[in-house]
Amino acid sequence: MKFGTKAIHAGVEPDPSTGAIMTPIYQTSTYVQKSPGDHKGYEYSRTHNPTRTALQNALAELENGKHGLCFASGMAAIDAIIKMLKPGDEVISTNDLYGGSYRIFTKIFQNYGIKFHFTDMSDLSKVEALVNENTRMIWVETPTNPLLNIIDIKGCAAISKKHNLLLVADNTFATPYLQNPLDLGADIVMHSLTKYMAGHSDVVMGAVIVKDDELHEKLAFIQNACGGTPGPQDCFLVLRGIKTLHIRMERHCENGRAVAQYLINHPKVEKVLWPGLPDHPSHQIAKEQMRSYGGMVSFALKGDRMEDAIATLERFRYFSLAESLGGVESLCGHPASMTHASIPSAERLKAGLSDSLIRLSVGIEDIEDLLADLEQAIG
Ligand SMILES: *Cc1c(COP(=O)(O)O)cnc(C)c1O
């Protein structure tokens, strides 16, 4: 099956009891047994639920994996992955990481004796230099937020194989439409399904996808034992969302390109970050690793004044000022005062996260309207 066919057909079967073409929302907590242990594979909905099973199977196929596991949020998925580790274990990750991941690593799991290293992963020798006998995991996120840097997944996989580590890839920004980390050598793919996968800004959910049976067993044990599972209604919404993933992504990529091109020619714009631009620092890796470049675009204004960025954000009509990304509607955000406000300003600036940086999640509206909105908002 090619990708679009998979997006529509993967994991779902007509409902066995009625033939319903859409997997029903099995809004039930428990399942009747004929005799103790004599049941149809379902005992309790924290452990298994048919609507969730359909979604998990669909996700496994889309990522070219074997097993999918869904969680109540992207953070709950991250939580389950790190719970495979023990005190004393070490993780190497990027210094340009989703804020929530950085927070759970440093404010929660560090207290349980797990050590996290953050480094510039565009230089793989820096990654390998941090490996020691306690290292268990490399955690990659690519493209990164909001600088849209691209990390070489294959390169990280070579290091993780050599030292017998687990390689995890947060594939939220790219989605399986743009890249399949398992094919590039990752052991575990993680998603915030909240973003592009569900795609309609109406659900919060996360997922983990693996090929390996033993890894699946460990993660499924944690999923059930710790209980961070989603409800069937939300699983239904994500199942519906992924049926249009390929056509949404195609338009996100097209609109992203048009917006990036418009911005590089704008006299008030200082720089534009979009991995599809030939002068983007990791364009070459993006070209090799991704099928296209996505709909996330960041840009900074000339003069780099925070008040100019804020005034621009207030003027947008179709780009709504909000956290999150990946929905059909365009969103805009100001990392310096919103998602990355907790980082001291000197550190922020050093990382390239300037005061006037605006992040756009370019939606799938008509591009003429989006460009007109940029025109009037930037002025
Ligand atoms: C949003 C996000 C998460 C967290 O997911 P939630 O569904 O909000 O819990 C993790 N990683 C990335 C890259 C994200 O954008």
From TrEMBL:
Keyword Lyase (UniProt): yes
Cofactor dependence: pyridoxal 5'-phosphate
Lyase in keyword set: yes
Alphabetically ordered keywords of this record: Lyase, Pyridoxal phosphate
Superkingdom as given in the UniProt entry: Bacteria
InterPro entries with a match to the protein in the record: Cys/Met-Metab_PyrdxlP-dep_enz, Cys_met_metab_PP, PyrdxlP-dep_Trfase, PyrdxlP-dep_Trfase_major, PyrdxlP-dep_Trfase_small
A cellular-component GO term for this protein: cytoplasm
GO process terms (BP): cysteine biosynthetic process via cystathionine; transsulfuration
Pfam family membership, one: Cys_Met_Meta_PP
Record-annotated membrane-spanning stretches: none
SUPFAM superfamilies: PLP-dependent transferases
Molecular function GO terms recorded: cystathionine gamma-lyase activity; cystathionine gamma-synthase activity; pyridoxal phosphate binding
N6-(pyridoxal phosphate)lysine: modified positions: 195
Similarity comment text for this entry: Belongs to the trans-sulfuration enzymes family.
PANTHER family linked to this entry: CYSTATHIONINE GAMMA-LYASE, TRANS-SULFURATION ENZYME FAMILY MEMBER
Name recorded for this polypeptide: Cystathionine gamma-lyase
Lineage of the species this protein comes from: Bacteria, Pseudomonadati, Bacteroidota, Cytophagia, Cytophagales
